[in-house]
Design goal:
It is a single-pass type II membrane protein. The chain has 671 residues and is an alpha/beta fold. The chain has a domain at 47-288: NAD(P)-binding Rossmann-like Domain (Rossmann fold, 3-Layer(aba) Sandwich). Helix content is 56%, strand content 13%. It contains 25 helices and 18 strands. The protein has a 7-stranded parallel β-sheet with strand order 3-2-1-4-5-6-9, with helices on both faces. Helix 5 (153-177) links the parallel strand 4 (129-132) and strand 5. Helix 10 packs across helix 11, helix 16 runs parallel beside helix 17 (475-498) and helix 17 (475-498) runs parallel beside helix 18 (519-539). The longest helix is centred in the N-terminal third of the chain and has 40 residues, at 2-41. The protein is globular and about 75 Å long. It starts with a helix and ends in a 7-residue tail after the last helix.
Length: 671
């Protein structure tokens, strides 16, 4: 198994580079032709089509309502603010909508989401477009400055779950009409900025969820994912209502919501998969992908240093320069992309050489964790268990957290035998705020310090979205995978700052490479990645953050343990084979050693096995290709359990070579 991964770590990136070099010109040419063809030949006629718009009382939702009204659509406007909604409805009627209904609802409540979909379909008899727009922003100077971390929960509940709930009830009606879902996300989902950590995370979760859903639904329902840059709305203006953000607002131009709405509706009617507005924001994407560390430094400088230190003259001068720069649409939309490409090509090689040199230096100066205090969540099995053993071998003192107390004690005993001088076990549920505070406090009270926080606890739900009968059964995925990390981090930050410590976030490559049936797992991991990227720009060098994105690792998940659509943990090895197919599974012992090495080196990102990182670039440059391949492999077939992925595994007999013994014949630990 080790030999297979070593071979793939060398061969897969090289093969991908060759294929991308050959394939990309043809792919880009095809995309360009398709874009022009859709612009010239196809645009859906919205006259008498039925459109639900959430968050329609103001901002982008309001302007989108007006744009659909101009096209003669029937509207169902949803918002919690009924007074504003009535005014929007009246204006929409005056602009050309033949019929408008308004529905007061809170999208974070599943009953309200069912009600507004039912009322719309009962009134109009159909549903053609669902625009998931409702959202809020909660901002503090830093995450740790929240008086109560639970203040942040509504951001995920409204922005993410509000979109999920409405979609869940709308899908049957949208399938009947071959309709469309329009998702108003944000560029902050892939270009996270400080002070908006939870907002950024919610938008990353939305993007990933609907990318996964698009794989599952295929062509039956179109999905347009909108990633917005700075738009002038009441929500945005409220979010920048402090001195730092006002300073930033002076130098970054905000586009008008009305123009944004036109672009959104045009793209939806064309059937675009993605749209970014204003279009210059797309230029930031390759920079974020290729130079993440550089962009972290730039973002931190812009948000921390410049707004706090400029004189009035400097600010006005910068504003004048930037205003002129950004007001020239031709320069932004035509010249800026090729200039960006040229600049990237110019600095890419020196940057890679510097990264290699920096990696060597960090490897030589790797942290000695002997005597350090390491807190590990989800430590009763899988990656968490073996991270405990690896830290134990290096002489670290351990605080092990999980729900299974008996298993924790077994892991603690073995960790001590491997070299840990002191181990405590703390039974806790990371989805409960009070438990997270308790395990951090107990650790610091016992050891007097905290050096590494390893957020590893997680569960994997598995079900096609349309097969779910009660979507609330999957809420624990976000509660454990995302909030379980965020809560513990919130309480640990003051102690980690004292020790110049490190947060090790065990996320997943599913955060950028979504697989069908796992949309809640995928979206929770995307949220976690973006949350810690945001947090890293807030904390700077005070606390290191290593974001770990594992591929397929020997664990209870790869042994077939999933959260079922009924909300129960089950073992289903047949569905495990459907999901994993012919991908080799990495030994958990080797993975744990590599992860601890990465954390001790101070890596910002670490992917294990290494070749999995290559899939990120396929996702960035050829997202449509990956979606088609995922659907063909994991969805196509005579039945769900007869997917091509399962047939490949059975026909080739590769299971005996690609799956370790513990996966082929698992001995799962009791719950």
């Amino acid at each position: 198994m080790t030999a297979i991964h070593k071979l793939m770590n060398v061969a897969f990136p090289l093969l991908s580079l060759i294929l991308l070099s050959i394939f990309m010109p043809l792919y880009l040419f095809f995309k360009l032709v398709l874009i022009f063809a859709k612009k010239l030949a196809y645009s859906e006629n919205m006259a008498k089509k039925v459109v639900i718009i959430t968050g329609a009382a103001s901002g982008i939702g309001e302007q989108v309502a007006y744009e659909y009204a101009r096209r003669g659509a029937f509207l169902s406007l949803v918002d919690i603010k009924m007074d504003n909604l009535e005014a929007v409805a009246n204006k929409a009627r005056s602009l050309g909508s033949a019929d408008v209904i308004i529905i007061g609802a809170d999208v974070s409540k599943i009953q309200d989401c069912k009600r507004f979909v039912d009322e719309t379909v009962n009134y109009y008899g159909q549903l053609d477009h669902l625009v998931n727009n409702a959202g809020i922003i909660h901002t503090h100077t830093r995450v740790e400055d929240c008086h109560d971390v639970s203040e942040l929960i509504p951001v995920i509940d409204i922005n993410f779950w509000g979109a999920v709930y409405g979609t869940f009830y709308a899908i049957p009606h949208l399938k009947n009409s071959k309709g469309k879902i329009i998702v108003i996300a944000s560029a902050a989902g892939w270009f996270p900025i400080p002070r908006f950590s939870t907002y950024n995370a919610s938008k990353a979760a939305m993007i990933n969820f609907f990318e996964t859903l698009r794989i599952e639904l295929g062509w039956t329902i179109g999905i347009t994912i909108v990633t917005l840059g700075p738009i002038k709305t009441d929500l945005a203006l409220r979010a920048i209502n402090d001195e730092v953000q006002r300073s930033l607002g002076r130098i970054i131009p905000m586009s008008q919501a009305s123009e944004c709405a036109k672009a959104i509706v045009k793209s939806a009617c064309r059937g675009d998969m993605y749209v970014t507005y204003p279009s210059w924001v797309k230029v930031l994407f390759p920079w974020r992908v290729l130079f993440p560390e550089v962009m972290d430094l730039v973002i931190r400088f812009v948000f921390e240093f410049f707004p706090n230190n400029p004189g009035k003259k400097d600010v006005l001068h910068m504003r004048a320069v930037v205003t002129v720069f950004f007001s020239v649409a031709f320069f932004l939309n035509i010249l800026l992309p090729p200039l960006t490409l040229a600049l990237i090509l110019f600095i890419l090689l020196p940057y890679l050489l510097f990264k290699t040199f920096h990696f060597v230096i960090r490897s030589m100066l790797s942290q000695n964790v002997a005597g350090k205090v390491i807190l590990i969540t989800g430590a009763s099995s899988g990656i968490g268990e073996h991270l405990a053993y690896e830290y134990g071998k290096r002489g670290a003192r351990l605080a092990l957290v999980a729900r299974r107390e008996n298993r924790l004690k077994e892991v603690a005993t073995k960790a001590k035998s491997l070299g840990s001088p002191d181990v405590i076990t703390i039974p806790a549920d990371v989805s409960i705020v009070q438990d997270c505070k308790r395990f951090v406090d107990l650790t610091v009270n016992h050891f007097g310090q905290l050096d590494h926080l390893v957020n590893n606890a997680g569960i994997v739900p598995l079900s096609l979205f349309e097969h779910i009968t009660d979507v609330t059964n999957f809420v624990p995925a976000m509660d454990i995978n995302f909030w379980g990390s965020a809560y513990g981090t919130y309480f640990a930050i003051p102690h980690l700052r004292k020790s110049n410590g490190r947060i090790v976030a065990i996320t997943s490559s599913a955060g950028w490479l979504p697989a069908p049936r796992m949309m809640f797992y995928n979206s929770s991991k995307a949220a976690t990645i973006t949350f810690y990227e945001s947090l890293r720009t807030e904390l700077g060098k005070e606390i290191g953050i290593t974001i770990v994105t594992p591929g397929l690792i020997e664990s209870e998940m790869t042994q077939g343990k999933f959260l079922s659509k009924e909300g129960k943990m089950i073992v289903d090895q047949e569905m495990r084979d459907v999901q994993l197919s012919v991908m080799p599974i990495r030994s958990v012992i080797g993975a744990a050693k590599a992860i601890v090495n990465g954390a001790c080196r101070g890596d910002s990102y670490f992917t294990e096995p290494g070749y999995i990182r290559t899939t990120f670039y396929w996702k960035v440059f050829c997202p449509e290709v990956l979606e088609i391949m995922n659907r063909w492999l994991l969805i196509s077939g005579s039945s769900e359990r007869g997917a091509i992925s399962k047939k490949l595994l059975d026909l080739t007999g590769l299971k005996n070579y690609l799956y370790p013994e513990s996966i082929r014949n698992p001995k799962l630990k009791p719950n």
